[in-house]
Design brief:
By secondary structure, this protein is an alpha+beta fold. The chain has four domains: 2-71, no CATH class; 98-142 and 374-410, TATA-Binding Protein (2-Layer Sandwich); 143-166 and 353-372; 167-350, no CATH class. Helix content is 35%, strand content 36%. The protein has helices at 2-7, 10-29, 33-36, 38-47, 49-57, 67-96, 113-122, 144-165, 353-372, 393-403, and strands at residues 106-110, 126-129, 134-138, 168-175, 179-181, 188-192, 204-215, 218-229, 234-240, 245-247, 250-267, 272-279, 288-291, 297-301, 307-312, 315-320, 325-328, 332-349, 376-381, 384-389, 406-407. A hairpin with a 2-residue loop joins β10 (245-247) and β11 (250-267). It is elongated.
């Protein structure tokens, strides 16, 4: 019983909250595996005993996934549940109890009882006749606003946990008239894997059409038509910048447009050896690298004109990348057959967004209900009116005086 009392005390709550803040601060200042990669983490650990202790003894190479952080979040969640139930029971018992502790309330002298009480009834005050006197209350359920506000933290915390620990991010590159599997390693990279749920669906995506609008050199709008199919269903939809396409919980966000080139490699006898698509990434000013089966290496250089650097048999040449262009080597010919547009997508699957919205709305509703409709009480004994408002007691006093039938002198 004593341990339970300690665990659910405000001091213990403050300790947990402080430790969570410290860990979140460390999450910012300590290198994390998700940012610098596993190899860099191992390199830092080999050079420093402190890093080795933090990363592998405490599990702080990814703090939000570490056991200390998860245990603290779990304890904080339990405490929040306990405080909500405890606070709710107190509020509900207070609402049920109609005998107020009026002794320390401010008071006014009553002059004309009938006028005063008739105007209070018209204002919406609810009346109760008690042994000691008459009790009137307005907005008696206003304290429930605080219960709603505290419950909103449950939704916000639950939604935040689900959003972080179930989120999956895939960056997908697809050209017009091309179909690509979501998890095709040649065209997509999984930047973030969920901790609690593993994404295993792998459906086919086809970019049927795209329209885009430029304002100067800046891309103003993208309008894309996607076809998605898997073993059980087929789906068509439109997505735009800031208006993602939603399919089975996956949201397709188009990020930007760039150019891709159709390429064919033939031997000197004219037989096709390899063909495919090479993507430039000049929107992000990134050079891209490709390696073909015949030990031919290519690098697309983002300059004023897009260049391609070809390396074969220790020979290196630089060419302007354009349509219907032929590059000849000793044993092979490389043909740039055509230019097509391609789109970079961020594909996101996550849970908890709707729960967060509910929590936010409950919080706004609870605070608004509490402060816009404060509980106002009046207790009448003989010729004295005792009054109390949860907020703005002075303006409440002025309101009662303006109703008439009372005297400000006590």
């Amino acid at each position: 019983m004593k341990i339970k009392k300690i665990i659910y005390s405000l001091k213990f709550n403050a300790l947990i909250f402080s430790l969570i803040i410290i860990l979140l601060f460390l999450n910012v200042i300590i290198p994390q595996e998700r940012n610098i990669g596993t190899l860099k983490i191992k390199e830092l650990s080999s050079k420093s005993k402190a890093y080795e202790f933090l990363f592998f003894k405490l599990g702080f190479k990814d703090i939000p996934k570490s056991y200390p952080f998860l245990i603290l979040i779990f304890l904080f969640y339990l405490q929040l549940l306990f405080f909500i139930f405890k606070f709710s029971s107190k509020v509900l018992n207070k609402i049920k109890a109609k005998r107020p502790n009026y002794e320390n309330w401010e008071n006014l002298k009553l002059k004309e009882q009938n006028i005063f009480f008739e105007r209070l009834r018209k204002a919406g005050f609810k009346e109760f006749n008690l042994k000691e006197g008459k009790y009137l209350v307005l907005n008696e359920y206003s304290p429930l606003g605080f219960i709603l506000f505290h419950i909103s933290f449950l939704f916000l915390l639950t939604g935040g946990i689900l959003l972080y620990y179930t989120r999956e991010e895939i960056y997908l590159t697809i050209a017009k008239d091309q179909e690509v599997f979501l998890r095709d390693s040649s065209f997509s990279s999984i930047k973030r894997s969920p901790l609690f749920l593993r994404g295993e669906e792998n459906f086919l995506i086809f970019l049927e059409d795209l329209e885009y609008v430029y304002e100067g050199k800046d891309l103003k709008d993208l309008n894309l038509k996607l076809k998605i199919k898997d073993s059980s269903s087929y789906f068509e939809g439109i997505c735009k910048i800031n208006y993602p396409l939603n399919y089975k919980g996956y949201k397709f966000y188009p990020l930007y447009k760039d150019e891709a080139f159709l390429i064919e490699i033939q031997n000197k006898e004219g037989y096709l050896v390899e063909k495919g698509i090479i993507f430039s990434n000049c929107f992000e000013k990134e050079n891209t690298f490709y390696k073909f089966d015949m030990e031919i290496e290519a690098e697309i250089l983002c300059q004023e004109e897009i260049k391609i650097k070809i390396k074969y048999n220790e020979k290196e040449d630089l060419f302007t990348l354009k349509e219907n262009f032929k590059i000849s080597f000793e044993n092979y010919d490389i043909y740039i057959k055509g230019k097509i547009d391609w789109i970079r997508f961020m594909v996101v699957k996550e849970m908890g967004g709707f729960i967060l919205i509910i929590g936010f709305l409950l919080g706004i509703l609870g605070i608004s209900f509490r402060f816009l409709f404060p509980k106002k009480e009046i207790f009448f004994i003989e010729d004295t009116v005792y009054f109390k408002s949860d907020y703005f007691n002075l303006s409440y006093k002025n309101y009662l005086e303006n109703l008439g039938g009372v005297d400000g002198k006590t």
